[in-house]
Amino acid sequence: MGLALLVVIWLITFISTYFFAAKTWWLPHGASTAARFIDGQFTLTFVLMGIVFVAAQVALGYFAWKYRDRPSAPPVAYSHGNVKLEIVWTALTTILFIGLNLMGYPVWAANRWEPARPGAMQVEVTGMQFAWYFRYPGPDGRYGRTSPKLMDPSAGGEAAVGLDTSDPAAKDDVVTGSLYLPVNREVDLTLRSVDVIHSFFVPSLRFKQDAVPGLMIHMHFTPTEVGDYEIACAELCGLGHYKMHGMVHVLSQEDYEKWMAAREAEKQ
Amino acid sequence: MATRATVHAHAAPQGFIRKYIFSLDHKVIGIQYIFLALTAVWVGMFLSLLMRIHLYWPNAVLPLIGEIKPETYTALLTMHGTIMVFFVLTTAPQGGFGNYFLPIQIGAPDMAFPVLNMLSFWTTFVAFVVMIAAFFVQGGAPLHGWTGYPPLSAVQSAGPGEGLGADLWITSIAIFCIASLMGALNFLTTTLDMRAKGMTMMRMPLTVWSWFITAMLGLLAFGVLLSAGILLLLDRNLGTSFYVPLVVVNGVQMGHKGGSPLLWQHLFWFFGHPEVYIAILPGMGVTSQILSTFSRKPIFGYRAMVYAMLTIGFFGFMVWGHHMFMSGMSPYSAFAFSILTMCIGVPSAIKTFNWLGTMMKGRIRFTTPMLYAIGFVSLFVSGGLSGPFLAQPVLDIQLHDTYFVVGHFHLIMGVAAIFGMFAATYYWVPKMFGRMMNEFWGRVHFFITLIGTYAIFMPMHYLGMAGGTRRYSSYLEVGYLTKLMPLHEFMTYAAIITIAAQFIFVINLFSSIFKGPKASDNPWEATTLEWTTATPPPHDNFNGMTPVVHNGPYEYGVPGAPKDYVMQTDTPVTVAGAH
C-alpha cells in the first residue's frame, strides 16, 4: 500500500508538473509593456512554488513507503517535535513568501499607483449586458455629456451609451464596438458600467479591470505589437456573460490615423 | 466540572420522535447534520455534473432536465457553489463530526446547550429547504454566482432567476447564518466550560482545537454576512440603495441612487475568507489526529499546530481584500492585503511540515482513514501552492476570475476539506454505528477519488493561465477559448468517472452501517477519549462516569509503556528524556 501511494503521488506530481514546465498551455503571447514584467514574476513564482510542490509531494510519497509498518520496521521515534526546526522553516517560508510578494510591486505600482502620463490617449470603455462600447473624445479632446435617460441598449453605438448629441462636445465623439489603438502609445482607459459589474479582460495585453456601476475607473497600458486581441468579460454579469466578448485592434500609427479620420468623416 | 456536567445532563429520551428527530443528544444531532450534508453534497455534485456535461456537449438534451440554457448554467453554478459551501463544507465537518465528537473528546456528557443545538440543526434544515425551493419558483434559481455581487443580485430585472429565486437564495443564507451563530456559541461554551478533569487546553486533541477555532471564526463571520444579506434583501424589495448606484438595466433606469457595489464585496468577503478556514480547519484537525494515530507517533509539534491554527484564524480576518484586487478597490490597500495573505502561507506551511514530520520515522498503518489523511496533505500542498500566485495582485491581473482560481479553491477548500470528511467518516463510523467499514472498497474509492480529483482540477490551472475565464456557459463564443476545449473535454470525462466512484462510498457506508463486522471499543488502538467509552457511546457518553485525563492526546510509541499507545485516561507513564 505504501508503494502504491508512492507511485500514485509521484505520478500525479510529475505529470502535473510536466504540463506546466512544457508550457503546453501557458500565458498567451504578451503584447503590452507590462507583459514582460508580469510574465517574469509569474515564471519566478512558478519556479519557486514548483520546487516546493515537487519536494513536498515527493517527500510525502517517499515517507508513506519508507515508514510503512512491517515486522522488520524499527520502533517509532518517540518525539513531540523539534522547536529549532520549527523556527527554521517558519523563518524560511516567511522570507520566501514575503520576499516573492515584494518583488512584484514595482510592476503593480507602475500599473496601478501611477496615473497615465500626460498626453496618453483617452478612451472611455462602457460595459453593459452584454456588450462593450468604446468612446473616443474626438479632436476637441473632450467627452460629450451622457445621460442615463437617453440610454438605449437595443439601438447600439451612441444611443447605447446615452450620448447627448445636443452637447457641442459630443459632436465629434466617436463610439465604436471594437477598440482601435495605435501601437506603442499609452492609452488611458476610463472604465464604467451602466448596469451590473463587468470586467474588461484582454489576456494578451495582460490587462484586467472591473467596470463598476457608479465608478469611473482610470487604468492605463501600452500595447507593443500590432495585432488583434480578444476581450473576454471576466465578471459574471448575467446569462450572456459567456458571449460578452470584443476585440482590440492594435494598428500602426498610420493605419490608426486613417481609421480615425474615416470615423470622424462619418460623423460629419 | 462534575457538578456543572450534572446540570446539563438530561435523561435518555423515549419514543422515536424525541430520540431521532427532535433529539437533544449531540450524537443524534451530529448524525442529522452529516446526513443533511450527505444529501446536499449529492445535490451539489449532480449540479456540477450537469455543468461539466453542458461545457463539453452544449447541445445535449438531457432526460427530465431538457436543454441547458445559458441562464440554466449560471443558475447551476450559483446553486452548486452555495450548496457546497454552506450545506456541505460548513455543515458536515463542524455541525456533523464536531457535534458528535467534540463533547466526547473533552469528556462531556453533551453540548453545553442541548436545546440550542437541536434548534441550530433544524434551522439549518429550514435554510436548506428554502435554498432548494429556489429551483422551483418562477424564473428558477438565481444566476448571480455564490458570491452574489450586486447590482446583478440586487436588481430583479437583471436576469432570469433574479426574482423570487434570488430572494429565497438570500433568505436561506440569512437563516443559515442564524443557525451557524447558535452552533458557534454552543461549541465555544462547551469547549471552555465542559472539559473533564485534567483536560487542559493543551491536552485537547487537535480536532477539538480545530472545531473550537472554527467556532470562533463562525461567530465573528456569520454575523457580518447576516447583516449584509438583510441589506441586500432591503435593496431588492424595499428600494433602498445600500449596494446599488444609479443603474440602467435593459434600457430602464432603476430607482436606486448612490449605493456602492463594493460595499457588498467588502462585507461578503469579510465573511467569505474566514469561511474558507471554517471549511478547512476541521479537516486539518482530523488529519492531524489520523496521521498521528496511524503513524503510531505523537503529532509533530503539537503546540506549533495549535498556534498555527490560531494564526490562520487570526490572519483569516485581515485578508478579505485579496478577492478584490481587480474590483476597483484602492490599489494601495491591495499591497497590505497581499502581504497579509502571504503571512497565512507561513502557518499553513508549518502544518504541512509537521504532518510530514509526524509520518517520518513512524510505522504507518494504511487504513482507509490514513489514506484519506495522506490524500488531504497532498491536496493541501497542491491547492495551497497556487495561493502565492493569486495573492500577488500583479499576477491576479492575469489570473483573477479564471479557472486558475477555480482549480485553486476546489483543491484546497473543496476537495481537501472533503478528503478530511472522508477520513473522518472511515475513522469514526465504527464508533458512531458500531460497525467497521469495508477496507477494500475504501481503498478502491480512495485511489479513484484521488486520481480523479487531480484529473479534474489540475487542468483548470492550465486553462486559467491561458486566459480561460470562469462562469462561462460556453467556450464556443470566444476564439481563443474555443482552442481550450480539449481541456474541458478531459475534465468532463474525469468528472463523470470520479462522480460515479462516489457510489462506492455511499454503498460502502450504508452496507457497513447495517451489515459491517462489529467494531470493538477501540479498533484503531487510538488514545483520545471517544475510544475509552462503549461503541456506540451511551446517551450520556460515559455511562454516568466522568473521565479523568492524565495524558496528552497523542501518546503513541511511548518507550516503557506496556502497549504502543497510552490513552488519555491511562495513568501516566514517566518517560526518560521525553519532552
What would a concise description of this structure say?
The complex is a heterodimer of chains A (268) and B (579). Chain A has 268 residues and is α+β, with helices and mostly antiparallel strands.
Q: Overview of this structure, please?
A:
The complex is a heterodimer of chains A (268) and B (579). With 268 residues, chain A is α+β, with helices and mostly antiparallel strands. Chain A folds into two domains: 2-71 and 79-112, Helix Hairpins (Orthogonal Bundle); 118-267, Cupredoxins -  blue copper proteins (Immunoglobulin-like, Sandwich), CATH 2.60.40. Helices cover 39% and strands 21% of the residues of chain A. Chain A contains six helices and ten strands, in the order ααααββαββββββββα. Chain A has helices spanning 2-21, 33-66, 83-103, 105-113, 157-161, 253-267; strands spanning 121-128, 131-136, 174-176, 179-182, 187-193, 198-202, 207-211, 217-221, 227-233, 245-251. In chain A, the strands form two sheets. Chain A has a five-stranded mixed sheet with strand order 3-2-1-5-8. In chain A, β6 (198-202) and β7 (207-211) form a beta hairpin. In chain A, α1 (2-21) runs antiparallel to α2. Chain B is mainly alpha-helical. Chain B has a domain at 1-9 and 25-259: Cytochrome C Oxidase, Chain A, CATH 1.20.210. In chain B, α4 packs parallel to α6. The relative contact order of chain B is 0.10. Chains A and B meet through α1, α2, α3, α4 and β7 of A and α4, β3, α8, α10 and α11 of B.
Primary descriptors:
heterodimer; A: Immunoglobulin-like; 2 domains; five-stranded mixed β-sheet; 39% helix; elongated; B: mainly alpha; Cytochrome C Oxidase, Chain A; two-stranded antiparallel ribbon; two-stranded antiparallel sheet
